[in-house]
Amino acid sequence: KRQKAAEERKEQEILNSKKALIEISFSSFWEEYYLPYAKQSKSVKSIKTEEGFFKNWIYAEIGQIPIKNLTIKELQILLQKLNEAKKSPRTIEYCFAVISQVWNYASNFQLVSGKNPVKLIRQPKFDNQRIRFLTKNEAKILLETLKKDVPEIHDMAVLSLFGGLRLGEIMALCWADISFENKTITILDPKSKKNRYCFINQQIYSVLQHRFINQNKDELIFAAKDGTQKSYLSKSFARIVNQLGLNENITDEKQKIVFH
User: Fold this and answer.
1) Any idea what DSSP says for residue 183?
2) Which of 220, 227, 172 is nearest to 195 (CA)?
3) Each residue of 67-86: b (16+ CB within 10 Å) or e?
4) What share of the chain is helix, strand, coil (3-state, %, to 5)?
5) Closest by alpha carbon to 188, among 167, 205, 174, 209?
6) H/E element holding 199?
7) Each residue's pLDDT tens digit, 200-230
């Protein structure tokens, strides 16, 4: 009888657990399942961005709703709130992308079914293509000022300007990626998902030779103070751009000079 009673209790616990999972709220699923999964597969920067969206927007509007009950109605209210706060189309897209990823992950547990409700939302279209370019004289003045005030950002800017590397690619570079002999930089796991090479011209060569002091191959070229990979660019770049007046009287974001 005791054995049978124990088995019945175990079966009831399993049923209760399944029932609780089926009724789990969006915020509980986020904390208990999605976030631990994301931390294993995404960068620290991406996690911080997603946590920011969840804390500032997602939690208040849909956090307490059982994830299986999430519909276009709740998402439309969230969209309205984001628009009222005058958030950019890009920010809105990122916010809904986070919700979509959580919903898709929940489908792996068979907690949701049917079409992802985010796909039913008509989000504002945007074009963030940069249409402003540095002139040779602007680039010369910017690099000279950076070299004087913040040498490390100057070196990063040289790699970006003369090698076409994105900021994230520069921050991820190790000395193993540099071949002084072949005058090439190997760019692994870039945003385009396809590894590529960058040729080292004289400007890049001077920067790298100056920074190279027989470091180990696995050491980052532009590491943070604790030796880990940087996740953001110092505000010094924007300060110097403003100091030089490169964005003076420019209100269109696509016309402003930024590191990218």
Assistant:
1) T
2) 172
3) bbebeeebbeebbeebeeee
4) 60, 5, 35
5) 174
6) strand 196-199
7) 999 999 999 999 998 899 999 999 888 888 8
Tens digit of each residue's pLDDT (9 = 90 or more) over 35-68: 999 998 888 888 999 999 999 999 999 999 999 9
Nearest one of 101, 99, 6 to 58, comparing CA atoms: 99
The DSSP call for residue 229 is B
Q: Whole-number mean pLDDT of the chain?
A: 87
Q: Which tokens hold the place of 120?
A: 């039913």
Alpha carbons within 13 angstroms on the beta-carbon side of residue 208 total 25
State the greatest distance between any 2 C-alpha atoms of the chain, in Å, as a whole number.
89
Q: Report how many helices (DSSP H) and strands (DSSP E) the chain contains, helices first.
A: 12, 3
The residues that bridge with 185 in the sheet, in sequence order, are 178, 198
Q: Answer whether 99's CB lies under 8 Å from 85's CB.
A: no
pLDDT score recorded for residue 128: 60
- How does pLDDT run across 140-191, given as a tens digit for each residue? 999 999 999 999 999 999 999 999 999 989 999 999 999 999 999 999 876 6
Question: 179 pairs with which residues across the strands?
Answer: 184
